[in-house]
Amino acid sequence: MKMNFPHIPALYRTAVLPITLLGLFLLGGCASVGPDYAKPDVSVSVQWHTALKGGLKPAAADPAVLAAWWTTLNDEVLSGLIERAVAGNLNLKMAKARVRQARASRRAAVAEFFPSVDSSASGKRVYSSADTVADRVNDLYTAGFDASWEIDIFGGVRRSVEAAGADLDAAQEDLRDVLVSLLGEMAMNYIDVRSYQARIEAAEGNVAKQAETYQLTLWRQQAGLGDELAVQEALSNLESTRSQVPDLRSGLEAALNRIAVLLGEQPGKVHKELEKSASIPAPPVDVAVGVPADMLRRRPDIRRTERELAAQTARVGVATAELYPKFTLMGSIGIEALSVNRLVSTPTRSYSFGPSISWPIFKGGAIRANIEVQSALQEEALVEYEKTVLSALEEVENVLTAYAEEQNKMESLRLAERAANRSAEVALLKYEAGLSDFLTVLVAQRSLLSAQDQLAKSRGVVTSNLIKLYKALGGGWESMASREEEKTDTRKTHENED
């Protein structure tokens, strides 16, 4: 269908181009209203307050080591679980969906820069009747295009795109933060599994020894060398130790089920592959922790709140732009006829072109109130950023202390366990020889069980504290993020080839 408009006034036709060029000039030359964002300047100490000991070093952490910190534990099972968690975890999938949503929202914001064109077509039959004339039935067919383009003179659209871009950055940092938390939680639950297994083995080993001791007291009583008191004390000690096993098994079951859920699978799916006990992974001898400034640059939660502050700052500009007039270039072209054939051959043509301006003269203070709302939200975002920084510093300082001190505790428990084991052996030998009463054996066996249980627990806590330290430093997301970028690049390459 060919439509000609030969009788558009020449003056009007020549005016459209200058108006369009003027709009482009104003669009590129005017500054956006509202505050320009500047990243907050947070002053932090040049070194950690906590004295570094227990293998902690102030040297900058190796990026490759920090990106895959779990490999420092030298546990292939743990590494395999982490790989599977990254592929199947549901929280991670939700975070990825939020990134896609933010990316689409930014594209929608950018689209506001461009003109909008709408097309329409209609066909209707009109019936009319009167006393003086015969009834009339007419058909009417119309078709046309409408176009409009708002010239972003005061930067409302630009600020909206700026906010959407910062929201996208924040969503990406949130994805990384979810990843950091996932890696830490998976590793700590794995350590819990190995710790519970070690504690169960210790408890069951003591049950076996105490059962032998109970049998010994029975034999001595039957031989007239002992009394019922020793028998009952031995039985009480045995059953008390046996009663601890169910709680440990419940803890083991919960840790195994938690690992399955972190993998995105149903509880019970990992029991077989983890049912065989293994030693608790030991931390490396030296751990480089860097300085506070390194942590601030790396932690995704800090980076996310900074981007949220940038987005909210841009929204203040969006709200401020509502105070100013809006300039729009508008135009329409249409045709109409009484039949479809005439719509194609000899339609009636119409057109309209020209600029328009709208300015909210009075809205009861609603615009300025919204500016105040957005400014208050900006202030809140700034405080949230500062709070996140302080919380991160606190977290690292606490875990630095906990990691070093737990190693001291573990060493003392190791010596205590060795002494308790020897004490239990000597006490039993003396009791068998009739050189001491059963109370000495009872106390020694209880001390041994406590020492072995606490030592196994402490070994797990040391490794868990190392995991918490890597998590607090923001480690782990870099290697996974690079994989996602490689997947994205590969997908884009295939799309371009298609």
Would you write up a description of this structure?
This protein has 498 residues and is an alpha+beta fold. It is 65% helix and 11% strand. The chain has 14 helices and six strands. The strands form two sheets. The protein has a four-stranded antiparallel beta sheet. Helix 4 runs antiparallel to helix 5 and helix 10 runs antiparallel to helix 12. The N terminus and C terminus are likely disordered.
Fraction of residues in helix: 55-70%
Query: How would you describe the shape?
Result: elongated
- Residue share in β-strands: 5-15%
The N- and C-terminal alpha carbons lie at a distance of: 33 Å
Task: Give the helix tally.
Answer: 14
Overall pLDDT confidence? 85
Q: Got a strand count?
A: 6
Main sheet strand line-up: 2-3-5-6
Structural class: alpha+beta
Low-confidence stretches: 1-22, 491-496
- Helix-strand pattern, N to C? HEHHHEEHHHHEHHEHEHHH
Biggest sheet character: 4 strands, antiparallel
Radius of gyration: 38 Å
List its traits.
elongated; alpha+beta; disordered C terminus; 6 strands; disordered N terminus
Short overview:
With 498 residues, this protein is of the alpha+beta class. 65% of the residues lie in helices and 11% in strands. Strands 2-3-5-6 form a four-stranded antiparallel beta sheet. The chain has a two-stranded parallel sheet with strand order 1-4.
